[in-house]
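Reminder: ligand-aware prediction takes two inputs, not one.
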Amino acid sequence: MGIDLGTTYSAVAVVEATGVPRVVNNGEGSAITPSVVLFKNAKGKDEPVVGGAAKRQAGLRPDDVVQHVKRYMGDPSWRFDSSNDESYRPEEVSAIILRALVRAAEAELGETIDDVVITVPAYFDDSRRTATRQAGEIAGLNVLRVLNEPTAAALSYGLSSDDDGIVLVYDLGGGTFDVTILGIEDSRFEVLATDGDRNLGGLDWDNALMKLVVDELEATHGVTDFWDDVDAVALLREKTEQAKRALSAVETTSIQLSLDIGHFSVDVTREGFEAATKSLLRRTQELVEDTLDESGLDWDDIDSVLLVGGSTRMPAVSALLARLSGANPVEGVNPDEAVALGAAIQAGIETGGEGDLSDVVIEDVTSQALGTVAQDDDGVDRNWVVIERNTKVPATGEQILTTLSPRTELHVWVTQGDDPDIDFTTEIGHGVFPLEEEWPTGTDFRVVYHYDIDQTVTVEVFRLPEDLLVGVFEIDRVANLTEEAVEAAAAKVGAMGADEAAAPAESAPAAPSVPTKPSGLPTLPTAASQSTAPAQTSAPAPRPSDR
Ligand code: AMP
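Here is what comes back for the chain with adenosine monophosphate:
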């Protein structure tokens, strides 16, 4: 099964015996399920309710309802505390959603589902991808692959139409924005460039509309301190999202709010909404233009534009893309379903099963740069990119470094992100290479990274000028949770809502490695990076707390 695990809504699909994917409706008969969990208190135990029923309670019981958890995936410090004093990590909340999606699909299909492909925004970094995979494992699923959402959308589009060529996928969901440029030729899908903003989505359009409404309540109805009332804010959020959807179809609508202090009706117009959200749309435009630049292409080279994600239903989005590309976006792609359908196709490919999917080849690129830490000429630690962002995977890159002091061991810090400032990169690994004999100051060595299709990074170090292999280490995946913690979480989530005794206690998270940096880090004789993709800048990654 393919699962599009969205910030606000999720969808699932399977591949028929003919190789054609189809969306599986949930128990409410809907193709999309709100990614929302309500924790009901059942005799002192949490009983999760997922989907429409939970979303409908969001305004009434904001303290018991958790949503938008995708925004926190990979964040080791985020927790949702239920009124039963149970604490849930983002991976656990996502696992509860995944389990509910799978159970509903199993009921619909009358079959058991074990193997799944789950999609993620192309711009998710390693820790967020791993968190997603672990959420699947906690839900008791075998995660065949974590697939990029735009690639999934292009797969479903490419295989259902005969249109080969260069496709730009503009994916604006509930919480994230991605843009990807791919080449499609027969069954070959080659990603040329990808970028995005994991904190830009329909939710931000909701927030802007909420602010418009609250400004109006304050200006004309004399309402004060609205934002302090948690219940009123939750209610307004729900009403605003509905109004936003309505504004995709009509020019004006009104929001009715029944609060403790009275009933209010506020008119909103599409024009006012579009003016208030202009800067958000502009941010997506900048990312689209940057990605086009990175791919080395022009608008003339783009054969079709695919709009994916519920937020692309806003007329301003298709108008923007039509203006930029000079042609209307492709019709007939269901923005809610394309990603799940593509994920199902990938699941079909992975299991070598249904239909004739054996010819399909997907070539992806790195969505984040990989670098290493070394001193510059001024003795300042900085990040040196080894493999550029948007390099085709599998990828290889290298840096040549020099010891600044006599050394008996070498340390290699592997970073994610292309900012020279190490505070804006994320450390994903640290290798220590003991040396057989002491290296004098000024010894040159080569640090080589290999990045494979499953995103495993292998680091090799060679001493120069002989090019002798000093050592190899592999960074598997950056995980917040150890295997034991995943197992404990699986037991905890598995026991929920079942007639079992109390769930086992949560085990402690993996202790983050705290590298102690030796003095005399290697310095660089040359700043030239050896990987082939053009240099780009990207939004800084959050600083890890342990650096
Ligand atoms: P997704 O994560 O792709 O399911 O996208 C969900 C987002 O799409 C949410 O922010 C929804 O509010 C938004 N959305 C869905 N339908 C519409 C619509 N007709 N107009 C505007 N936004 C919509």
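The CA atoms of residues 99 and 218 lie 43 Å apart. The pocket of adenosine monophosphate is lined by residues 6-9, 32, 173-174, 202-203, 241, 244-245, 248, 309-311, 313-314, 336 (CB under 6 Å). We will return to this case in the review session.
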